[in-house]
Amino acid sequence: MKLKIELDFYLTQKYGLKKLPGGLELPKFKLKEYLPKDPVIIDCGAHIGSDSVELSRIFPKGIVHSFEPVPDLYDRLKRNTRRRPNVSCYQLALSDKNGKADMYVSSGTSDASSSLLAPTGHMNQHPEVTFNNKVSVETITIDSWAEKYNIDRVDFLWLDMQGFEMQMLSASTKILPTVKAIHTEVNTKELYKNSVLYADFRKWLESKGFVVKAELPNSVEMCNVLLVRK
């Protein structure tokens, strides 16, 4: 099983010799077209670290900063990245303000749908995913985090924040202008209260100098998008 996982990684993500099934995920080797060999990367909504590990292997000279505020997921993230010296983990939620906030924690058939926003349409579209618990998490803006850790640039953002991406980015006046590329999940229907839908989010990112390079459908209400600075 381990050998198959390794083989799949090299064939699909590392070198792109084999297409990913269904075309719903970006082959990460394509990011080499837009990023330096030593990129500073943020994985926000890192979950248990699958994307963080792959990004750290594709860019061994770079560093991946992985954010996951949900306690049990953060513990698994730490375990899964413990052998990756170029991954740093933070039990924080990137946000538009510093302080504390409630995280609506998903369970049922998915523990990967937690959000700082209250679920609305998500419960109708995916009734098998439940939100029975809330947990208080520490929040920080990306600019405050960067200042605290003496980071002056971030080349790439890998975002899976369940509708909170634009609110987080809109609070950044220092780091966002340094970003070369963004891979983000977007909503085309309201799944969380006050989430910004894709059309408006795209228009806002275009006003910040980004253009869409790839749109990868996830479901009828979500998709993954790669944007690159012009």
Secondary structure layout plus pairing:
Layout: H1 2-14, E1 40-44, H2 50-58, E2 63-67, H3 71-80, E3 87-90, E4 93-94, E5 99-108, H4 121-125, E6 129-140, H5 142-148, E7 156-159, H6 165-170, E8 181-187, H7 198-207, E9 210-217, E10 222-229
Parallel strand pairs: 1-2, 1-7, 2-3, 4-6, 7-8
Antiparallel strand pairs: 5-6, 8-10, 9-10
Question: Outline of this structure?
Answer:
This protein has seven helices and ten strands.
What features would you describe in this structure?
- The protein has 230 residues and is of the alpha/beta class.
- The strands form 2 sheets. It has a 7-stranded mixed beta sheet with strand order 3-2-1-7-8-10-9, sandwiched between helices. Strands 4-6-5 form a 3-stranded mixed beta sheet.
- Residues 1-7 have low confidence and may be disordered.
- The longest helix is centred in the N-terminal third of the chain and has 13 residues, at 2-14.
- It contains 7 helices and 10 strands.
- β7, α6 and β8 form a beta-alpha-beta unit.
- 40% of the residues are buried.
- The chain has a single domain, classed as Rossmann fold (3-Layer(aba) Sandwich), CATH 3.40.50.
Radius of gyration: 17 Å
Span of the ends, CA to CA: 41 Å
Q: Can you tell me the CATH class?
A: Alpha Beta
- Overall SS class: alpha/beta
Q: Strand percentage, roughly?
A: 25-35%
Give the neighbour order of strands across the main sheet: 3-2-1-7-8-10-9
Count of all domains? 1
The CATH superfamily title: Vaccinia Virus protein VP39
